[in-house]
Amino acid sequence: MTVSRALRDDPMVLPETRDRVLEAAQQLGYRRNELARSLRVRGSSGMVGLLVTNLANPFYAELALGVETLCAQRDMKLVVSNTADNVERERDLVDDLVARRVDGMIVVPAGTEQRHLAPSNLGGIPVVLAARRAVDIQVDCVMLDDYDGAHQITSRLIEEGHRRIAFVGPPAAWTSAERLRGFRAAMAEARLPIDEALLRCEQRDVATAEVAARELLNLEQPPTAFFCANSRNTIGTYRAMRAGRNRCSLNGFDDFELADMLDVPVRLAAYDTRAMGRHAAELLLARIQKREPMDQLVRQVVLPTTIVQYGGPMPLGS
Amino acid sequence: MTVSRALRDDPMVLPETRDRVLEAAQQLGYRRNELARSLRVRGSSGMVGLLVTNLANPFYAELALGVETLCAQRDMKLVVSNTADNVERERDLVDDLVARRVDGMIVVPAGTEQRHLAPSNLGGIPVVLAARRAVDIQVDCVMLDDYDGAHQITSRLIEEGHRRIAFVGPPAAWTSAERLRGFRAAMAEARLPIDEALLRCEQRDVATAEVAARELLNLEQPPTAFFCANSRNTIGTYRAMRAGRNRCSLNGFDDFELADMLDVPVRLAAYDTRAMGRHAAELLLARIQKREPMDQLVRQVVLPTTIVQYGGPMPLGS
DNA sequence: TTGTAAGCGTTATCAC
DNA sequence: GTGATAACGCTTACAA
């Protein structure tokens, strides 16, 4: 008992005793068993769960780092898993995190089926959604102003005279859908028709994006500009443009390394991914520490995007 | 007790009873407490620790994904932390992983001071080192043939007639030191002197690498070729070359996205990072399952590098 | 096939 | 200030 107190820096123990205990522990290589501790002290396993769709994507890696940084400050450990955009798997992983009694979790939801993320299914463990919006559930989330970023970029293209603008992006997980919505809205506001043949939303990686872009470039009436809904698609499109020696306007979502070094001007809706991770962690840690019931009042953080332009003037339309 | 058995799929329970239990559990949203379970069943918290130096570095993100993939197959969870190349922090994190009774851990050691990673200090928990060599301790590790990759690249440069070759890299953590050793060896074999003014080993990120490369390019006798010890330095050097409109031979370690799209030819010692993560996880899982004492026989996996060349013929020396 | 008792390593509570 | 006792939720061993 005294050992327990000493290791916990409880003031109810003589400094001398404390020192003797610590020394003995040192000698024996003794370490308090955190498993046993968390079993007794409920609501403090000292672990936070993080579920992302693809760890190797620089985007989520940055997000993870942001989360980790903040958690590390509070001496909390991160349990990270990959959902691979699979809702089934996500459900299982969430389940496991609950069973492990993590103090909270941050999830990039794989889909719009999110019932398993509702507070009532988590035994009171707080959740924060990141990067994607909550659908039909009341939980904190931090996301990007996807709609606005897409709207801004599209509007600029229209101002520059573009009429045939292609949209290439990943399957319509929420963020991509929002970006498409911003694109459509900007076109509608300018009373421009959308050629559905110029919309391609199935590309998850660079290789498939390149194929899709090439097909678009080979159309009888190719687009004069591309709006790519994420970095994978921007890079794939760039590859296709370069291979075909095409010269149209390249625009996209997400900044990426070397974007400013391409031999084609690029305009991007950029943002601070790491900050997003930090914000998510902040929301979560606030819930954890204040022990607020999850149904308190839901907080939403929407981070802005910044339009950046690399490599000289953008090609004009028509 | 029967519940415990039913949830564990113990055959010693009537199928009917089992079904009733499972249904009730479903109804009540009951989940077995994994913390309590791991407390009783020693050596199976179902968690693996992963310590990397920088999560946001695509290199480690890929490594993490490789590890995660394999662990997920065995239904093990990953506790990931960032050491930020800080040995003190690494020591604390290792300590915490031991206290959490992880089933094993994979560590990218921050330095050469690795006593805290020796089996005797881990209470029997197996470790595998990744990416960097074990120093003065007997543990499994999986690494790259850093020496050979650097040697090959340098040799080619010499064949191409280069005499003034600059080496730019991060501080001499093991991998960088090995690469420098390979560089020196190739030069020595060709009986070429090394101009120590062309060696810069302090750059951890792209920005500082760019500065270092610019300084080298501004020397009275600038190098005719660069050998960069990692992707951060390769990219930084590329930026400096491009800004200065210099045209010398660009070579480096690590493949990276868009390397093939630069407007300068590049030669790289490339390798499969994800495979490295998988190998590390395989070694670890083997130890975990076989419950081999850590001092059994140490396994080392050395992964080869492949020289790739992008963007046409490389500039010749002299 | 099911239930009982003990114990995993810690901490809350209450005596001393 | 220190120590005994019970309890956290589970599983192993054994009895019913």
Please sum up the structure shown.
2 copies of one chain form a homodimer. Chain A is α/β, with parallel strands linked by helices and about 325 residues long.
- Major beta sheet summary of chain A: 6 strands, parallel
What order do the helices and strands of chain A follow? HHHEHEHEEEHEHEHEHEEHEE
> How many separate domains of chain A?
2
Annotation field: number of helices of chain A: 10
How do the strands line up in the largest sheet of chain A?
Answer: 2-1-3-4-5-11
- The radius of gyration computed from the alpha-carbon positions of chain A, rounded to a whole number of angstroms, is 24 Å
What's the total number of strands of chain A? 12
Key descriptive features of the protein:
homodimer, 318 residues, alpha/beta, Rossmann fold, 17% strand, DNA-binding
Question: How are the SSEs ordered, and which strands pair?
Answer:
2 copies of one chain form a homodimer.
Chain A: H1 2-7, H2 15-28, H3 34-40, E1 47-52, H4 58-73, E2 77-82, H5 87-99, E3 104-107, E4 127-130, E5 140-144, H6 146-159, E6 165-168, H7 174-189, E7 199-200, H8 206-217, E8 225-228, H9 231-243, E9 249-253, E10 266-270, H10 273-290, E11 300-303, E12 306-310
Parallel strand pairs in A: 1-2, 1-3, 3-4, 4-5, 5-11, 6-7, 6-8, 8-9, 9-10
Antiparallel strand pairs in A: 10-12
Helix pairs in contact in A: 4-10, 6-7, 8-9
Chain A binds a DNA duplex (16 and 16 nucleotides) through helix 1 and helix 3.
Tell me what you see in this structure.
2 copies of one chain form a homodimer. Chain A is α/β, with parallel strands linked by helices and 318 residues long. The first copy, chain A, contains 10 helices and 12 strands. Chain A has helices spanning 2-7, 15-28, 34-40, 58-73, 87-99, 146-159, 174-189, 206-217, 231-243, 273-290, and strands at residues 47-52, 77-82, 104-107, 127-130, 140-144, 165-168, 199-200, 225-228, 249-253, 266-270, 300-303, 306-310. In chain A, strands 2-1-3-4-5-11 form a 6-stranded parallel β-sheet, with helices on both faces. A 6-stranded mixed β-sheet of chain A has the order 7-6-8-9-10-12, sandwiched between helices. In chain A, helix 6 runs parallel beside helix 7 (174-189). The longest helix of chain A is centred in the last third of the chain and has 18 residues, at 273-290. Chains A and B meet through helix 3, helix 4, strand 2, helix 5 and helix 9 of A and helix 3, helix 4, strand 2, helix 5 and helix 9 of B. Strand 2 (77-82) of chain A pairs antiparallel with strand 2 of chain B, so a sheet runs across the interface. The first copy, chain A, binds a DNA duplex (16 and 16 nucleotides) through helix 1 and helix 3.
